[in-house]
Amino acid sequence: MMMKMDVNAIIEKMETGEQDTILTALQSFNKEMNQCFTFSKEEEQDREHLGELVLRFLNRDLQPSCQLACLETIRILSRDKDCLHPFINHSAMSTLSRYAGIALADTATTADSQPGESQVEGEGEEEADVYGELVKEASTPSENQDQEVIVEGLKSICNILLHNETGQVVAADLQLIKGVAERLKQCHDATWNHEVRFFDLRLTFLLTALRVDIRAQLSQELHGISLLGKQLDATLGLCWLDTLETARAGLEGIPHEDLPPLSRQQTELAMEILKILFNVTFDTTRRKVDEEEAAEYRHLGAILRHCLMSHADGEERTEEFHSHTVHLLSNLPLPCLDVLLMPKVQQGSIEYMGVNMDAVNMLLDFMEKKLDQGHKLKETLLPSLNLLTESARIHRETRKFLRSKVLPPLRDVKNRPEVGSALRNKLVRLMTHIDTDVKNCVAEFLFVLCKESVSRFIKYTGYGNAAGLLAARGLLRGGRDSGIYSEDEDTDTEEYKEAKAQINPITGVVEEEQPNPMEGMTEEQKEYEAMKLVDMFDKLSRTSLIQPMQLGMDGKMREMTPEDLRKLTHNPLFPPGEPPHSDSEDEA
């Protein structure tokens, strides 16, 4: 929505220096432009000048209403990514971080001493004096009672970071992550309202999403996993029944399905925390963690299990909440995923082999829901599918439970594996999906449920569907991959045993007997037709329409060379000069 306002008129009133006049002018501007998110090119310079004047004005001793009006104006102006020049230097960012309550004294003082940073001539000395008086260690409510001012400061910084790389560099220089981390430690302090908490988290998310160095700093120097885990714990209102078992405080003993939904505010804060933790733990699965880190991740995993079993206000919000939870669970070190199975089996729990499978069953339901939606499968389906695959690979009980749900004993031998509405049918259909990542992940999941046994994998999917994964693994000749699994048990049903000899391994079903196209041919005629076919392949190969392949000794497919084709076309039954193929290109 593009709106126009006479910026010059506001600038003229700003230049008077009178608080009341300026307050009235800025309030009028803010009211008019509050819903404006696109700006005209013509007034770019005027808007930049207005930004400079407002920043200079903020360094005076102002009444709270004037501070708020100035910060609201900056918040509106910072939506324009082409007019951020006044706000992306150390001096301006220091000013905004002070009002947001996240400035650190040492970084702010350093910023003020940097030459060439003042926005308006003669402004530097004035700002330095004011900064010396105002900059303090992470403000507390007693130092700045007006939390609206804090929120507007945070919103402005978020806009700047979102649109400008230089602003991100300055934020890192000023160590804003340390200031916001100090306030995050006060997660049990009821003084801070929801908006302050939310935009503290939103700022942390942007810093960790946009800057790898800040991500590492929060994780290591500021103990981000523990800090944010406590935030999530406090937000959800948890109590701990055991070392790795949680419950909603005051509602212990009540089954998850009977718990009241999380409030909208709880869900908003929790999702921001989950997004930050995802950034911070992004490389966790790629490196080894020590015992202390593993304990932190297992503690976090127990909270995430509670998230997975909780509901928000509405189905759409619940799905979004669970999506963030699944994404973060996928980042945890694989050995720590056993926390999903830790809680004791209670009345109403899903039990399998003496283990509580509530969380695994919830993941499976979530995965099937994403599969049924069919929208952006790579982004929506794969996180939960990969998580289930890795859980099944390392936990025998999880694999057996998932197999009972996804690949129950085979009874239907008359319909192809990809035909039907069962979960197995839906997954097998994706094994030939156009997106390579999707089909590979689905095949991997089913292969793990089959304990990486080629014969079992083909039994449930058909050789045609299984060929892609088997070719990639060098298993086209059969056998088993290198995974460590328990001994096979006989799960063949009577229906399968009776039909096994008639099942076409390529399609995976019993097919009607087809007439033999070579019936009545002599051996010479059969060989002639075979040579004709080889010659057709040779022609198509030479024109690069196809690339003939053959199975190598390593079980993988390899390209056939012209020499390989010549060996196939050599036929001593035909005398030289009488090639065993038609000269007709049309026939070929």
Cα distance spanning the termini: 63 Å
User: Helicity level, as a percent range?
Assistant: 55-70%
Count of individual helical segments: 27
Given the C-alpha coordinates, what overall shape results?
elongated
Strand content: under 5%
List segments where confidence is low: pLDDT < 50 over at least 5 consecutive residues. Answer: 108-145, 571-588
| Largest pleated sheet | 2 strands, antiparallel
| β-strand number | 8
The pLDDT mean sits at 84
Strand arrangement in the largest pleated sheet: 1-2
Structural class: mainly alpha
Alpha-carbon Rg, integer: 33 Å
Question: What are the key terms here?
Answer:
disordered C terminus; 588 residues; two-stranded antiparallel sheet; two-stranded antiparallel ribbon; mainly alpha
Structure description:
The protein has 588 residues and is mainly alpha-helical. It is built from 27 helices and eight strands. The protein has helices at residues 7-14, 19-33, 44-58, 64-77, 90-100, 105-113, 123-134, 147-163, 165-173, 176-184, 194-210, 212-219, 224-236, 264-280, 291-309, 315-329, 358-373, 377-380, 382-394, 396-406, 423-429, 436-449, 454-461, 463-473, 494-499, 523-542, 562-569, and strands at residues 238-242, 245-248, 351-352, 355-356, 503-504, 509-510, 549-551, 557-559. It has a two-stranded antiparallel ribbon with strand order 1-2. It has a two-stranded antiparallel ribbon with strand order 3-4. Strand 7 (549-551) and strand 8 (557-559) form a beta hairpin. The longest helix is centred in the C-terminal third of the chain and has 20 residues, at 523-542. The radius of gyration is 33 Å and the shape is elongated.
